[in-house]
# Entry
Amino acid sequence: MIIETRVFGAVEIDDAKLVRFVGPMLGFEGAERYALMDPNPEGPFKALQLVDDPDRCFLVADPSLFFPDYHVQLDAAQVSDLGLDDPAEAAVLVVVTARDGGARLTANLLGPLVVNAQTFRGKQVVLTGTSYKVDEPLPVQVTLQHG
# Structure
């Protein structure tokens, strides 16, 4: 299928690989289908594009690349929602936000996105009993280029 995006233009996506959220991302009720795109396979960031809204695209990353000790504990209901038979089938992503004009990046470690890598079912989970934050600074240096 072809989806329209503001950032990437028209993009062909395999419909079988669309991430379908079994519960909405916070603040995006009714938005269920997302395309996970990898515009720079050598970089740590991916784009999570809302299929039905060309203007909604989230920068996401595997948190283990930046926070090696980060882990997500799912309860039985979340495991069931995602259809996970094996925890190794779960891919964890966090939404990354550019702040200060893009000079500083933060990650939402408190509300990670968990995706069943076999079925592409996804869910945002809100962690409790943790010191993780919604705006944890990423330990990376960002260089702004002016053209």
